[in-house]
Design a protein that fits this description.
Chain lengths: ~1000, ~290
């Protein structure tokens, strides 16, 4: 063994300061071990580049360690650290430094006892990743931090995990060592790792994000859930990836969601649940619990059904939830509300759901011309009755505008409001005041609704946000509250605005009179406008100084939060809509549904300036008497304007593309054995391309078939019997007359002979709808009998289109399936016109569930005129064949006819097919089953159905789709017209 | 075979619609119908009352009959008429025989009995044929000879032609609302009458009627009248008639007996006017808009 001085000399060669340090430290080392210790230090310093740093650390820590432990222990630590110094000084350096810190902090030596665990794990890592000095450094840093912070079990768990992960990919270890979150519970993690190392690592990798989102306590809630799902690694990953994005509003709601997860159990279901949880009434746990129980039941027999359930897609799911929460759907009470509206107003207004109108204020009640829009569903209240009451009050509020003349004078109102300098303010004030006047009048005139209005008002008051700070916003808010019967002014009113607030309050309340007129609203508005806009501007805001200018401005302009049962009113829009409605009323021959027209016209197209530029006086400073005078003026203007508009109207009617009416239909999913709620969107298209010459051509070319069809149909006998009394011959005696005849004979008078009754036939009561498949495949040529190229489901839609487009050019002369379909209905239509049956002709096509097009060529009751003919002629192949929604829509319109016999005849060429008609693109089952269901639905509504197809290979699926005798595959396509008339005969004869 | 006429004995049992009109019925005039009727009577012009069910036609004729036969201006000739108003509600089996009279079997004998029309013609009363279009065709034939200058009634089975008493007047009613085209009044018939149009009264008048008929307070009566007016806005939804003043009076009577207004309207109105549950529900909502639940 070299002498101590030699060692020091050696060391000086390596790094003089280290030698110095060693020299100084020597006195703390037991004499017997000094040489050995110094030799260790030299060895460390020599072990690699910059290893003297590690040596320094060891030297510095040595006296500290020796203060608590014996020399052997010190040397053992030195040896252990030495293994890590070869490749880089850092791991060793970290280790030695940490040792010193540990001794200082670890008063009772308990942590020191855990050191072997750490060292063992370190050795394992070293064995796997010798050169990964950063990893090793990290390891020691974290490990010693753990030693200081955690209890023994946690440390043991962490070390065990580290050792295990060391046997995996380097990346995994990086993830592991990257997870330094203090809140992680390693014992739990160890359990997780035991179930699935992959799940464990994945969870670690997202832990930080999740904790940031949910917070510590919620992470603790989450932990056991994750453990439960760990064995299904893919599913758990999907679930974990979803969590950061869930749209729960509050922490409490997240907690509810987590607490509910165990009740669901299966991780896939949980994923569906969590991704839709923002649509659930999370504040109402008992409801959700019952709903979940229902879902679990469903899932226990059919996991797909369960998935659809927890995604709120299946009927069962939605209906259960609705019934549990007492939800009222617009659709369930739309007719009642429609009738109610007509009764209350005597006007032909249409009540619709906000979901059906594409306007800004989607969910708010509002009026658009002759349509009143109400939210699609209401479930804010606990019971169905209360929810319905909301509907009623909201509707009545809108009707109040009709009842109390607001809408009659809407043009005048709009003109008046726009003339204010700050017309935004004027509009805002008007909406507040007029809404208040209407509510008060309604409550005064209709005793029955009074309580409901108070209830809604206090509910609305409760949901107001705190009083805004800025002057204008605060004043407007106070006015709103006055209208809601808020009682005395709240104490929070800013002292500086108090005087104005008091006056405004009184102004609003002055409208609470049984005779309050529109003029009163306008006069009050006048005064309020002055108070709000001309109030003490110099000190208009003390708060302003504390806020930056932009924000202050924004807050000042902030519009009051809307009131849910009041909804939204846009006088400008209304002024235009209602003017149009007036015109519609006076324009004869406009079909019924034209009420929707006013909503479809773009307001920007109309020029309201016409009115404003007129001789209406400045609205400011107007007195009530002047208002009367102005009303006359406006009346005059309105008349003039109307004359102008009347000329415009026909042009608008034809040029303006009318918005297609939209309908939603459920779809049957045989996989989940349930309906998917409102799954498909169908557009009823009335503006179809027209090609009238096609009809003439068909009739000219197929005169013989036409007369054959006609002849066949005339054989149809009128049905419906009626009893006629007093005939000379009949199938029953007319008792009264018979008795009379007997008496007559007795008295010697000539008895009457007409003593019988007979059943007579009356008119046919038939409605028939022809539904034509307009899918791309109907473009196939059939005349020459050559096989059309097979049509594959997998083909991209665009490809199909271009494919058919190119074929169309060179083979346009030949007959296509679509032609046969069209010709058949054209011939039918001619014959039906003679027979006098009520019928409709429609086509359908579509692309995906969000877009099913339903082309209405001729509606029931509509004349078979030039336009209708043109539309039928204009039918052409489009895209896919999603039959279900088309059949449902056709059924709906057949049911509306209320005819005794309703027949639906579908003419198609191929099986129902669409790119998302079922999850499995290659399976036709989904489409077929849905079509079957739609047909069955039709039959339960007393609609007889018949499928005619010109697809030779159609037999298989058609048989499945229709009950016996309700389908026919036409072998020879040219027979279609003949067959069609036979079918018609059998259905309606 | 003996022929025996019973025409002079008032047969109260066989014509329950005949009243002796001792008290003046209440009738609230809504326009000039009273003057119109009086003028028509002075000229003995037959009168056609047009209007929906329960709007006061019957009440009006009763009132007029009282006024003419029992009123201040009535001469002894008229006062002597025992039953100034003979009312016949027509139905589809009502024949000319029912109006004119018939032989009845009495043991071995046949006995003649005058019908209400014959009675009126003989006595000089007002004969009111309610819902005339419902009756069989042969009954309208009778009307024709009675309503032109001849004023005669052929009694075929007796082989008689009766000349109408100078005080006789024929009044018929007709409800254009629910008649099918088949049962429309023939022009040749219609053109023999002076027509008076009836419709449901405006809310103010209707309220007055309800007050009088049911004895309820003015506020409630006003609300019932409002209710009637609103529900009539739904006329084209399966009940062409709207709701009649009669039903509103019924509701008023039930309320006057202490029934909750909502319940009363439910029974007297909602269920009465339509079988369509949604229409009933909608009307129920109108009712509960107007009347509080308790
Ligand atoms: N103008 C009125 N004055 C007084 N009472 C009226 C009036 N109008 C209607 N009524 C009330 O309405 C009730 C029904 O009227 P009435 O029986 O005369 O109807 P109607 O027109 O004859 O009906 P229907 O066609 O069904 O026979 C009356 O009993 C009365 O209470
Ligand atoms: Mg009557």
């Amino acid at each position: 063994m070299p002498a101590l001085t030699e060692v020091i000399l050696e060391l000086r060669k390596v790094h003089p300061p280290t030698a110095e340090l060693l020299d100084h430290t020597l006195e703390h080392i037991p004499v017997h071990g000094r040489i050995e210790w110094a030799a260790r230090c030299l060895e460390i310093a020599n072990s690699g580049w910059h290893a003297f740093e590690s040596a320094n650390a060891f030297i510095l820590s040595s006296p500290i360690i020796l203060a608590s432990y014996d020399f052997e222990t010190l040397i053992a630590r030195g040896d252990y650290g030495l293994q890590f110094c070869g490749y880089s000084f850092e791991p060793g350096f970290t280790y030695y430094c940490a040792l010193g810190n540990l001794v200082v902090a670890d008063v009772d030596g308990a942590k020191w006892n855990m050191l072997p665990e750490v060292e063992a794990a370190g050795r394992t890592i070293l064995g796997k990743f010798q050169h990964a000095s950063n990893l090793l450094t990290d390891f020691f840093e974290i490990a010693f931090a753990m030693l200081l912070r955690e209890n023994e079990s946690e440390i043991r768990a962490w070390c065990a995990l580290a050792a295990k992960i060391a046997h995996r990919e380097r990346q995994d270890l990086i993830v592991f060592l990257g997870s330094r979150h203090e809140s992680i519970c390693w014992q739990e993690m160890e359990k997780l790792e035991r179930v699935s190392p992959n799940s464990f690592l994945f969870y670690l990798s997202v832990y930080e994000v999740l904790e940031a989102k949910f917070g510590l306590d919620l992470m603790a809630d989450l932990q056991p859930l994750i453990l439960g799902f760990a064995d299904d690694e893919d599913a758990l990953q999907e679930f974990l990836l979803l969590l950061p994005g869930i749209q729960t509003i509050s922490r409490n709601e997240s907690r509810s969601v987590f607490s509910l997860i165990p009740e669901i159990g299966h991780v896939d279901l949980v994923t569906s649940f969590v991704s839709h949880c923002h649509e659930l009434p999370l504040g109402d746990l008992p409801v959700i619990q019952q709903w979940i129980a229902g879902g679990v039941q469903v899932a226990s027999t059919n996991i797909d059904a369960g998935l659809a359930f927890f995604s709120l897609e299946s009927s069962t799911s939605v209906e259960l939830l609705e019934s549990l929460r007492g939800q009222i759907n617009f659709a369930d009470c739309s007719r009642v509300m429609q009738l109610y509206t007509e009764a209350m107003t005597g006007k032909r207004l249409r009540v619709e759901s906000t979901a059906d109108s594409d306007v800004q204020y989607r969910d708010m009640p509002h009026t658009l011309g002759a349509s009143i829009c109400l939210p699609e569903s209401v479930s804010w209240f606990a019971s169905k009755d209360e929810n319905f009451e909301f509907y009623k009050v909201a509707l009545l509020h809108q009707l109040g505008f009709f009842e109390y003349q607001t809408f009659v004078e809407i043009e005048f109102i709009e003109t008046t409001l726009t003339e204010f300098e700050d017309s935004v303010l004027a509009h805002g004030l008007f909406n507040i005041l007029e809404a208040a006047r209407i509510d008060w009048l309604l409550a005064r005139h209709f005793r029955g609704i009074r309580d409901a209005f108070s209830a809604q008002k206090s509910f609305a008051l409760d949901s107001r946000q705190p009083l805004p700070i800025m002057r204008k916003a605060q004043l407007l808010e106070l006015m709103i509250r006055a209208g809601l019967d808020a009682g005395p002014l709240p104490v929070e009113v800013n002292d500086r605005y108090l005087a104005d607030a008091v006056s405004l309050y009184a102004e609003v309340l002055s409208l609470d009179r049984a005779e309050a007129q529109l003029q009163d609203t306008l006069s009050v508005l006048q005064r309020c406008y002055v108070i709000v806009s001309e109030g003490d501007q110099s000190q208009w805001d003390g708060a302003k100084t504390e806020l930056d200018d932009g924000l202050a401005q924004m807050l000042e302009e902030e519009l009051p939060q809307p009131i849910s049962f009041h909804g939204h009113m846009d006088t400008r829009q209304l002024a235009m809509d209602l003017a149009l409605v007036d015109l519609e009323d006076t324009t004869e021959g406009v079909p019924d549904d034209s009420v929707s027209m006013s909503t479809a016209l773009d307001p920007a197209d109309l020029d309201i300036d016409e009115i404003q530029d007129g001789d209406v006086q400045d609205g400011l400073g107007m007195l009530a008497t002047e208002i009367d005078h102005q009303l006359e003026n406006v009346e005059k203007l309105k008349r003039e304007n109307e004359d102008e508009n009347r000329q415009l109207l026909p042009a608008q009617l034809s040029n303006q593309v009318r918005e297609d009416q939209r309908f939603r239909y459920d779809e049957w999913d045989f996989v989940i054995n349930d309906y998917r709620r409102r799954w498909c969107t169908l557009y009823e298209v009335r503006d179809c391309p027209e090609a009238p010459e096609y009809v003439d051509k068909t009739l000219a070319e197929h005169g013989d078939v036409a007369s054959r069809v006609r002849k066949q149909l005339t054989r149809l006998k009128p049905e419906m019997l009626r009893k006629v009394k007093g005939v000379v011959d009949g199938d029953d005696l007319d008792l009264d007359r018979a008795v009379e005849a007997v008496i007559d004979r007795k008295t010697g008078l000539t008895p009457a002979e007409n003593i019988y009754t007979q059943s007579l036939r009356k008119d046919r009561d038939v409605s028939a709808l022809f539904l034509l498949d307009m899918s791309a495949s109907t473009d196939d040529i059939i005349a020459d009998g050559s096989e059309p190229p097979p049509f594959s489901v997998d083909d991209d839609d665009e490809d199909i289109l271009s494919h058919y487009a190119s074929r169309q050019q060179d083979e346009s002369s030949r007959t296509r399936i679509i032609d046969i379909e069209k010709q058949a209905v054209i011939l039918m239509a001619e014959a039906l016109e003679q027979l006098g049956d009520n019928y409709s002709i429609c086509g359908f096509s579509g692309y995906g569930r969000e877009r099913v097009d339903y082309f209405l060529c001729k509606d029931f009751g509509e004349a078979y005129d030039h336009r209708a003919r043109g539309k039928i002629g204009g039918i052409k192949p489009c895209r896919s064949t999603r039959m279900g929604p088309a059949i449902r829509h056709a059924t709906r319109s057949l049911v509306k006819t209320e005819s005794r016999i309703r027949a639906l005849i579908i003419i198609s060429d191929g099986y129902p097919q669409d790119h998302d008609y079922g999850q499995d693109r290659n399976s036709r089952d989904y489409g077929v089953k849905d079509t079957m269901k739609a047909l069955a639905e039709a039959r339960t509504q007393n609609v007889q159905t018949f499928c005619l197809t010109v697809d030779q290979s159609g037999h298989d699926y058609l048989r499945e789709m229709c009950p016996d005798k309700q389908y026919l595959v036409i072998q020879e396509v040219s027979q279609l017209p003949d067959e069609l008339s036979k079918v018609y005969q059998s259905l309606t004869g | 075979m003996t022929l025996k006429s019973t025409s002079n004995e008032p047969a109260a049992d066989t014509s329950p619609d005949a009243y002796s009109l001792t008290e003046a019925p209440f009738y609230l005039a809504l326009g000039d119908e009273v003057e119109l009727f009086l003028a028509a009577y002075q000229e003995r012009l037959p009168v056609l009352l047009k209007g929906p069910t329960g709007c006061g036609k019957t009440r009006f004729v009763e009132y007029m009959a009282h006024r003419i036969y029992r009123g201040e201006d009535a001469d002894d000739n008229r006062r002597r008429v025992g039953q100034p108003l003979q009312t016949v509600s027509c139905h589809e089996d009502l024949s000319a025989t029912d109006l004119v009279g018939r032989y009845l079997l009495q043991g071995d004998q046949t006995v003649w009995q005058d019908g209400p029309l014959t009675r009126s013609v003989k006595e000089g009363a007002i004969c009111y044929l309610d819902e005339i279009v419902e009756a069989r065709k042969d009954s309208t034939v009778l009307i024709h000879s009675l309503t032109d200058h001849r004023r005669i009634l052929p009694v075929e089975k007796l082989g008689l032609i009766l000349e109408a008493h100078e005080n006789f007047l024929l009044v018929i009613s007709y409800n254009p609302g629910y008649q099918s085209v088949l049962k429309d009044l023939k022009t040749s018939t219609r053109q023999r009458f002076v027509a008076i149009d009836f419709d449901y009264p405006d809310p103010a008048h209707e309220a007055e009627i309800i007050i009088h008929e049911s004895g309820i307070d003015a506020d409630t009566a006003g609300e019932l009248a409002t209710l009637g007016a609103r529900i009539r806005n739904l006329r084209h939804h399966g009940f062409d008639e709207g709701i009649s003043t009669r039903l509103l009076v019924y509701a008023g009577q039930l309320i006057s007996r202490g029934l909750n207004p909502i319940r009363a309207c439910d029974a007297a109105i909602c269920l009465a006017v339509s079988d369509d549950p949604e229409v009933q529900r909608a009307i129920g909502e109108v009712v509960s808009t107007i009347f509080p639940r308790d």
